[in-house]
C-alpha cells in the first residue's frame, strides 16, 4: 500500500506529493503546523489543536482559507486513506509559493497545505520506566507560543539531547526553565505540580491543558509559576508532556537521578487520568 499525502485539498500518492521550490515554508520557515494524535481510530483533541493552528495563523497574519471543520474533514479522509488506527497526523500550512522576498507577497498568494500521517503505538515502555533529559540554554525566538515551522532552535536542542543519550532537552532562559525542545515541562515538589505560565516563552500545549484538567479533578495542586533550573534539579519528580510522549516521567536529569530514580506517584496518577481521558474522548 502506498502512503497517501494531503496536498491542499487533494489526497495523492507520496510520489506525487510535491510543493513548489519557492514555497515560503522552505525559504523562510514562513508557516505553521500542528501534530495531532490518533487513538483507536479517533482523532484526539483535534478541535483545540486546530483552534491553536487558527491562532498561530492569525498571529503571523496568514489567511488560512480553511475552517477548523474543513481541516477536520480533510484530516479524517487522510487517516482513512492511510488506514491509521493508532498514530499521528502532521499538518502544515505555509504562506504559499512566491518569488523570494522577505516581505509578504502582494497580492497574497494561496497558502500551501500539506499533511501526512504515521502509524505507531503509545510509548508504553518509556511511560513505565521514564526517560532521561538534559538541560540546555533556550536560544529560540520570543514567540514560542506560535507553532511556527521555524524550529532550528528546537532541532539544535533535541540534537544536544541525542548527543547525551537523552530523550529530551529541557530549555531555560537564564535561570528560568521554559519547556522542552518538543514538550512542556513540570517539576513536582511536595505534592505540588509547577509549570511555566502560558505566555510567549512556551507553547500552550494541548497535553498540558489535559494534564491541568486531570490535576484539578484529582485535587493535585497545579501552579503555573516559573521555576529555576536549581528547583528542577531538587524536584521530587519531573514530567514532560506532548502529543507524542503524553505524560512522560523524567527519571534522570543531566546524568543525576531525579527523586528516588523511579517513576513517582504524581506521574502515575496523571498517566492513569490520561488513559481515562482518552477513553472518555473515544466513547
Ligand atoms: N510538539 N512545546 C513545544 C516546543 C512543542 O513542540 C510541543 C509539541 C509541546 C507540547 O504541545 P502539545 O501537547 O500540544 O503536543 C510543547 C509536537 C508534538 C511536535 O512538534 O511534533
Number of strands: 15
What is the first-to-last residue Cα distance? 30 Å
Structural class: alpha+beta
Low-confidence stretches: none
* Tally of helical segments: 8
SSE topology string? EEHEEHHEEHEHEEEEHEHEEEH
**What fraction, in percent, of the residue positions are helical?**
25-40%
Could you tell me the mean pLDDT? 98
**Which cofactors or ions or other ligands sit in this model?**
N-(5'-phosphopyridoxyl)-D-alanine
User: Roughly what fraction of the amino acids lie in strands?
Assistant: 25-35%
For the report, how would you describe the main beta sheet?
9 strands, mixed
Q: What would you call the shape?
A: globular
Query: What's the multimeric state?
Result: single chain
Structure write-up:
- This is D-alanine aminotransferase.
- It comes from Staphylococcus auricularis.
- Its cofactor is pyridoxal 5'-phosphate.
- Belongs to the class-IV pyridoxal-phosphate-dependent aminotransferase family.
- It catalyses: D-alanine + 2-oxoglutarate = D-glutamate + pyruvate.
- The structure is a single chain.
- The mean pLDDT is 98.
- By secondary structure, the protein is α+β, with helices and mostly antiparallel strands.
- 39% of the residues are buried.
- The chain is built from eight helices and 15 strands.
- The strands form two sheets. Strands 7, 8, 9, 10, 11, 12, 13, 14 and 15 form a nine-stranded mixed β-sheet that branches. It has a six-stranded antiparallel β-sheet with strand order 2-1-6-5-3-4, sandwiched between helices.
- Strand 11 (192-195), helix 6 (206-217) and strand 12 (222-224) form a beta-alpha-beta unit.
- It has helices at 24-28, 46-59, 68-81, 124-129, 152-163, 206-217, 229-233, 265-282, and strands at 4-7, 10-13, 31-39, 42-43, 87-94, 112-119, 131-137, 168-173, 176-180, 184-189, 192-195, 222-224, 237-242, 246-253, 256-257.
- Bound molecules: N-(5'-phosphopyridoxyl)-D-alanine.
- N-(5'-phosphopyridoxyl)-D-alanine is lined by residues 35, 154, 179, 182-184, 203, 205-208, 241-244.
